[in-house]
Write a structure and sequence with these properties.
The structure holds 2 protein chains of 2 kinds. Chain A is α/β, with parallel strands linked by helices. Helix content of chain A is about 50%, strand content about 15%. A 5-stranded parallel beta sheet of chain A has the order 3-2-1-4-5, with helices on both faces.
Chain lengths: ~160, ~100
């Protein structure tokens, strides 16, 4: 991590390519989790171009390239872009470089206890499936921690 | 045929026409535009400032309307039509990453 990288924050979140694609194509817990971010302007979705490239390729393959391009435009306007070395795992590296303390994924190689033990002490990130994140997300306490003051409620339309 | 007086000089207004000028405060008639406060857009540099403000709003506004992107609502409607499952997506991500390694 370099001096230019942002400080780790619980309001900064990375969604792996599978969660990004599931948000668009499936809904369910992925959308519920990301809706929390879309509805609160003081949270940040962090992603590298490589991570978005992979999600776009998955969407283009399972749906169609036109939808994938439109999705890419919309998500690029929303998320904060980070860079990382090309050989790094794009989701883990985005979290590490982008100061994200939450990583949402369906990849059981990342959510396993073994992976958690390997990451502990190296990367201050909590890896969870979207359903777990959506269930634990507490905007009032998070707002008090990262912004301060009374929680004013959602301040963005998550469908815009 | 007699030329209309407003075509032969002296005045540009036909008889009875309301002139384009209005009396300035105090009732004195002035030539067009004189004696009246300038409209904000007619002050020197005002147009440039307005264009700059508009450009800055576009550059900082990330709403779909400003960026020309579609809304999440529309994207979700289109995406759900493909009836894809989470396990299919997980396999596709592994395939994309496997292909890049």
């Amino acid at each position: 991590m370099s001096a230019d990288d942002p400080e780790p924050s619980p309001a900064r979140v990375v969604a792996d390519a599978d969660v990004l694609a599931a948000d668009l194509l499936v809904g369910g817990p992925s959308r519920e989790a990301l809706d929390h971010l879309r509805a609160h302007s003081w949270t940040t979705l962090v992603a590298s171009p490589t991570l978005l490239d992979q999600a776009e390729a998955v969407i283009a393959g399972l749906a169609d390239p036109s939808l994938a391009r439109d999705w890419r435009d919309r998500v690029a306007a929303w998320c904060e872009r980070v860079e990382h070395p090309p050989d790094d795992h794009p989701a883990l590296a985005s979290a590490y470089r982008g100061g994200a303390m939450h990583l949402l994924t369906f990849d059981d190689r990342l959510t396993s206890a073994r992976a958690g033990a390997a990451l502990q002490g190296r990367v201050p990130v909590s890896v969870r499936e979207p359903a777990a994140f959506a269930g634990l997300f507490d905007p009032e306490s998070l707002h008090a921690e990262v912004v301060g003051g009374d929680y004013p409620g959602p301040d963005c339309d998550p469908r815009e | 045929m007699t030329e209309a007086p407003w075509r032969t000089g002296g005045t540009n207004h036909p008889p009875g026409a309301v002139p384009h000028t209005r009396p300035a405060p105090g009732g004195r008639w002035l030539r067009h535009g004189a004696g009246w406060p300038r409209h904000p857009t007619s002050t020197p540099g005002a147009i440039d400032r307005q264009v700059g403000d508009s450009r800055r709003r576009r550059e900082t506004d990330t709403s779909p309307r400003a960026t020309g992107t579609v809304t999440w609502e529309e994207l979700f409607d289109r995406g759900e039509a493909y009836a894809v499952t989470e396990s299919e997506i997980r396999e596709a991500v592994d395939a994309v990453r496997g292909g890049e390694e």
